Amino acid sequence: MLLVVCFLAAIGLPTQTAQAQTSPIQALITEVAAVGMTVSDMDRAVDFYSKVLSFEKVSDVEVWGNDYERLQGVFGLRMRVVRLRLGEEFIELTEYLAPKGRPIPVDSRSNDRWFQHIAIIVSDMDRAYQRLRRHKVEHASSGPQRLPDWNANAAGIRAFYFKDPDGHHLEVLQFPPGKGDPKWHRSVDQEALFLGIDHTAIVVADTDASLKFYRDLLGLKVTGESENHGTEQEHLNNVFGARLRITSLRAASGPGIEFLEYVAPRGGRPIPVDHRANDLAHWQTTLVTRDASAAAQRGLAAKHAFVTPGVVPLRERTLGVTKGFLIQDPDGHVMQVVER
Q1: What CATH number corresponds to the domain at position 198?
Q2: Per the domain annotation, does 155 fall within a domain?
């Protein structure tokens, strides 16, 4: 069972409207450093991300022991962790050599709340799709979709969902001129096809509840909002009748975090209560803070669920951090908050 420790504290946090663009409190999070996922076969995963999607390996280490058991909430673990870079952004792949976890449910849908993906920016959607087809990736969308012109905030964006060898959802995304971060339109390498990671997207049950966690507690800033529906969105997500409230947030640096709230259909399943970090459906987004203890105290006061029983010092610092903890958002998505 996931070692979730629910701390009861009497102090509440102030709330804001969903339209607020900044938090009145000092931002606890300075950077979204990496997006991580659990894989079953590291060599296969690295081969896929490097050969198909052009990621570059940065580090490859094994860790074990009491500190990491407490951090991840998994007893007797031994993890192989590989850090990969694409452009300026990073992902972390973790294989649990022991103990092994469960596969992603075969009947997973894009509106289930354990859904998460990374959005990889491409310079040419047609070329990217053909490359993915040559490598026989598993489709999640029926094909690349161009979001319609009536949707001012998303008009002209082209996107396609697919899966990695373990079944993790991934997205390739192309912004039209004038949309997205300007850096996606000024690539130094004119031949580069895969440019970097714009954001990680998570399905949430209630945008306003999620804003209290990510904006009001952690101090991320809301940078965009949209409501998407229509045949293009249905075929992108492969969910009939999909109507999504989409909210984008960012820290001072790193990829964004995007909420996908399904206004319709509302039947997405919650993250299982016995979910653990060694299950292949597990993602954890690494957030950097200057003060892990202050961040943990704020999480305690707001009565959020912790995977980690307090801030854990990492004495070996093999993963490049000095201390950290895992905390769950209102839907159970895991954030790894670390101090370097």
Answers
A1: 3.10.180.10
A2: yes
d(CA 339, CA 332): 22
- Count of C-beta atoms within a 10 Å radius of residue 12: 10
Q: Which of 325, 299, 328, 326 is nearest to 313 (CA)?
A: 325
Are 171 and 117 within 8 A, CB to CB? yes
CA 52/CA 137 separation, integer angstroms: 9
Q: Is residue 174 part of a domain?
A: yes
pLDDT in tens, 3-51: 433 332 322 333 333 333 434 456 899 999 999 999 999 999 999 999 9
- The answer to the question of residue 220 being in a domain is yes
Residue 20 to residues 15, 219, 225, 239, 245, Cα–Cα distance (Å): 10, 12, 11, 30, 16
As given in the structure block, the two tokens for residue 22 are 């900044």
Q: Can you give the residue range of the structural domain that contains 136?
A: 116-264
Residue 92 one-letter amino acid: E
The string of pLDDT tens digits covering residues 113-122 is 999 999 999 9
